[in-house]
Amino acid sequence: MIHPSISKIPPRCKEVILGRLFTASATCRVDEISTNINVVVAMSGGVDSSVASHLLQSMADESVNVSGLHMMNWNALDEDCDDDRDVELNPSGKRGAGTTQSDEGETTASIRRRSRTFCEASERDYNDTQSVAQHLSIPLHRVSFASEYWTQVFQPFVESLTPNSPSTTTDVNRNGPSNEQILMPNPDYSCNTFIKFGAMKDYAIEKMNADYIATGHYAQLWHRGYDFAKRFRYNQSSFIEWMKESSSLLEDQVLDAISERPEEEWLLSNSDRQHGVHHRPMLLAGADRSKDQTYFLSGVRTDNFKNVVFPLGHLMKKDTPDKSNVACNTKYRNQQSVRDIALAAKIPTASKKDSMGICFIGKRNFGQFVSQYLAETPAPGPFVDVDTGEIVGYHKGSTHFTIGQGARISGANTKYFVCGKGGDCGVGKDDSNSVFVCNDTHHPSLYTDECSVDFSSFNWIGLGDEIPNDNSFTHVPIPLVRDRPIELFARTRHLQPLVPCSIRWTKRNSSTSLGVLSIEFHKPMRAVTPGQILALYAGAGGLICLGGGPIHRRGSSFMERGLGVSLSMLHPSGNNDLSLLRHQID
Questions:
Q1: What is the pTM of this model?
Q2: How many CB atoms lie within 10 A of CB 81?
């Protein structure tokens, strides 16, 4: 259901919300599409989805039809794009008409400029998508899942930021309520889970008769045991041949990756083939590890990867002299990059810059943006030095800060980093709105080597049969089911170098909880935070993404244990953590 405030939306934005379906190509009408194999590509207007569409269209013939689907999911209900009225923000009524300044000092005029910029950028993306669709001679549909995005992604995330929120947090797969409120996952993670591979996929299948859905993600899917020849017995298209060849190639990669780690032979047992049984798709890292997107895909239910293809999974984003980020198969090293393909095909978006910011919302000042939607105004409080206990400044609300970020304290002579809120930094119980800070990016208070994830909230990918017995846990690694630990790789941030870890399933005899996954990292990890996504990987180089889920608790910090840290023992917090990478290379 579209929000009742839609009548307040300016005409240009209203067209996006009300128009559930548009056909943008004049060269091919929807009613002319045959029904042999229909492939629907999610097209954003960027170079990745444009090249994915081009590659699929190059395989199309009389038996394969390719269509584009463009989503506009942030409806800007109260982000007024055109008129000069005071801005009304969000359905919760946080700010209404007459407001002239935000809690962070942002004026109505600046909000209006930002809102107009967002709408104009959205229209440019749609226009770019139209240009690509016309260039490729494919039909283009435009659809809004604004209501779904608000209720399933954005609103739960914002509510989780509000202390003592009356709503209970459900697990990432919406299996039921949790007894404890934790931060909801990053919107990019939830967006893939509920929108791109939820509402969008359902729409493509139900309204566009899609047999396959494709996106421009840098990831790969091995559709294990899938008999393409049997399903499309009379179809000899290039698309089906590509699917069969890709499946065979990925199978070889997986078997090679497991053979290099004998301790992971249980993967073969979980994936053991039975005659006539289709197993669940297995999510694999993209060939270009510098662009790999499996971290944000780790919350997608395995069954929602059925009939999904990632045409860019085996490609590099751009040519680079350093091929070390290419996945193990050497065949990939000699292929054209995505940018090269776009330029050679004269795709209109070939030189377009990558998009940045929150999924479907764009690049924003996160603190200012989110504060507009909170049910309660963030309470001010002090910055407290975790070492001395002294107040070193004041903030306008702890909601605006995440663990590990720079504190930016006005007038401070020292550069501080946020290491905790309230009493979670080992300085005694503190129920106030204090934000604790430390004076070193590698301070012991920022590091831990333990965390836990609620078992019911972790989304296992790729194990077991398509229709598992709910009581058999065939979708869970066999050693964990048998009360044995397993050695895997993990990351808690997108593109963070993988860290070896030990996993245990601490079971509970309770009707409301299946227990927790206890994770012990082999190196200290920086800024591990509840609500952050923990993704697990197996196979040599972490090829196989086994899934992910929101961190429930972090372990005690090294400061709380009275321990120090040295650069040589720490794990990089990201792929650009130069302070550690340079030291460890030297």
A1: 0.83
A2: 20
